[in-house]
Amino acid sequence: MSEIDSAPYRIAAQPYYRPVGNEVDLYTAAYAARMPMMLKGPTGCGKSRFVEYMAWKLKRPLITVACNEDMTAADLIGRFLLDINGTTWRDGPLTLAARMGAICYLDEVVEARQDTVVVIHSLTDHRRTLPLEKKGEVVEAHPDFQVVISYNPGYQSLTKDLKPSTRQRFGAMVFDFPNPDVETEIVAHEAGVDSITAVKLVEVAQRSRNLRGHGLDEGISTRLLVYAGRLIAMGIPPADACRTALVRPLTDDPDMQDTLDAAVDTFF
Ligand code: ADP
């Protein structure tokens, strides 16, 4: 079979990623062992950025799939499409990644139904194959292929979880929001704000994170801090930027909004 053009999936420029521990070494070793990996952690804490950075560093193409509950196995594997010439097989992202030797990143994997996720099983054990039953083909994964999944354990419910048989195919790396100094550095860099502003934004986020389980499901993420910083960098008054990018997206509860607005006013 002819080589697949991986150019569209290559990351040309180095993504900015600020390591927070030994995750780069750990992932490099896991990739060398072709161990499927799961990245666990709250939304907006840097998991996707880390995968982009690692794909760039390891010089591998990256195919990302944002999982959702309507996703079917065919959306991952591929399907026959009808056109004027009859039916043509179109590889799905998982098949494409397996053929190409890409890193296949299934983002928010628990959003997908469990019976959809099981299609990765044969690719994530010693077989490293993917049967395309409708096409009558068994794809042997390229030696460089790897599966990475991410999920947020905070959202977990009985209906949204991974089967034990899926879990036990992966090594796991735990992500969380970085310590305040590192998060300040990230926010200043990504948003283009001075470090005094970034320190204040991080302090607001920390207040919100202390409210987890006391009226808030999740605290303010690094992603939201970067958004708020960008508004400030564009000249929006900081208190307005924080209300728009940090507080209003997080909660609809008026009392909680008041509490968080008060935290914003303490710092800005
Ligand atoms: P997740 O995939 O965990 O939901 P992302 O990787 O999309 O989160 O992170 C959200 C944003 O936070 C990124 O776009 C980036 O601006 C910033 N970010 C978080 N952690 C880091 C980090 N360690 N280095 C660089 N940027 C980071």
UniProtKB/TrEMBL annotation:
InterPro entries in the record: ATPase_dyneun-rel_AAA, CbbQ/NirQ/NorQ/GpvN, CbbQ_C, P-loop_NTPase
Keywords: ATP-binding, Nucleotide-binding
Protein name: Nitric oxide reductase NorQ protein
Molecular function GO terms recorded: ATP binding; ATP hydrolysis activity
Domain CbbQ/NirQ/NorQ C-terminal: 183-266
Pfam entry (one): CbbQ_C
Location of the ATPase dynein-related AAA domain: 37-170
Domain of life: Bacteria
The family this protein is said to belong to: Belongs to the CbbQ/NirQ/NorQ/GpvN family.
PANTHER family for the chain: DENITRIFICATION REGULATORY PROTEIN NIRQ, MOXR FAMILY PROTEIN
Coiled-coil zones: none
